[in-house]
Design a protein that fits this description.
mainly alpha, 3 helices, 73% helix, elongated, transmembrane helix
Length: 71
């Protein structure tokens, strides 16, 4: 168990925030052009999927922030 602060936590939080901002901008910029004419329910499913897909690597990233290892 960690007893002292580590640089990984603030750097990780800033990195996560930056990555989510970039991801959101990319999705908001390019997805309407690609799927704008598709049926509303299909668009909803795609945006729901894209809104949740960023969670997949989050567990390993949070583990790295806490322990310093990706495993």
């Amino acid at each position: 168990m960690r007893t002292e602060p580590t640089w990984r936590i603030p750097v990780g939080l800033l990195g996560l925030l930056l990555a989510l901002i970039v991801y959101g901008i990319v999705i908001a910029r390019y997805m309407p052009e690609l799927i704008g004419d598709w049926p509303t329910l299909v668009q909803t499913a795609i945006y729901l999927f894209l809104g949740l897909v960023w969670l997949l690597p989050l567990g390993r990233f949070l583990k790295w922030m806490e322990t310093g290892t990706w495993r």
